[in-house]
Amino acid sequence: MKGKTRFFICLLGLLAAFLLIAGCTGAAPTAGDGDTVKVHYTGTLANGTTFDSSAGGEPLEFTLGAGQVIPGFNNAVLGMAVSEEKTVTIPVEEAYGHYDEDLILVVPREKVPDEIAVVGTSLYQPRGTIILVDDEVVMIDQNHHLAGEDLTFTITLVEIL
């Protein structure tokens, strides 16, 4: 019986060594800097309002560390394993920054065409949203619409490419 036991112990040792060498230790790979990943997410504000979600659509694809998403979102995905889900609250400083009154642009009314001079219109040059129109001026808010907000995301890592 001792011979069979010794044989099985050696066989188990060889199998363990093979799995270790092959990288099949049972630990799931995790997302690291430079990896391209796909995630599903839902973003909410402090009051519970959903401001964005990939639910029902394609997952968001981006490369970790490439500056393609806000820093707090990037950092939340680092170290996640495929199928892992987490909820994180990202402070203003790691999201879109604090609201800056200096980013309110005041333009003489005559320099803005009538079809554009409508409150709520989003502009690309200059970037911003029209927040006030009167007879003399048009005010354009150049802050990101989520500036000044802590953001909560529920994130699921779908794939590491």
TrEMBL record:
Residues 34-122 form the PPIase FKBP-type domain. One of its GO terms (biological process) is protein refolding. Its EC number is 5.2.1.8. This is Peptidyl-prolyl cis-trans isomerase. It is found in: Cytoplasm. Keywords: Chaperone, Cytoplasm, Isomerase, Rotamase. InterPro entries: PPIase_dom_sf, PPIase_FKBP_dom. Gene3D superfamilies: 3.10.50.40. Transmembrane segments: none annotated. It catalyses: [protein]-peptidylproline (omega=180) = [protein]-peptidylproline (omega=0). GO terms for cellular component: cytoplasm. One of its GO terms (molecular function) is peptidyl-prolyl cis-trans isomerase activity. Belongs to the FKBP-type PPIase family. It comes from Methanocalculus taiwanensis.
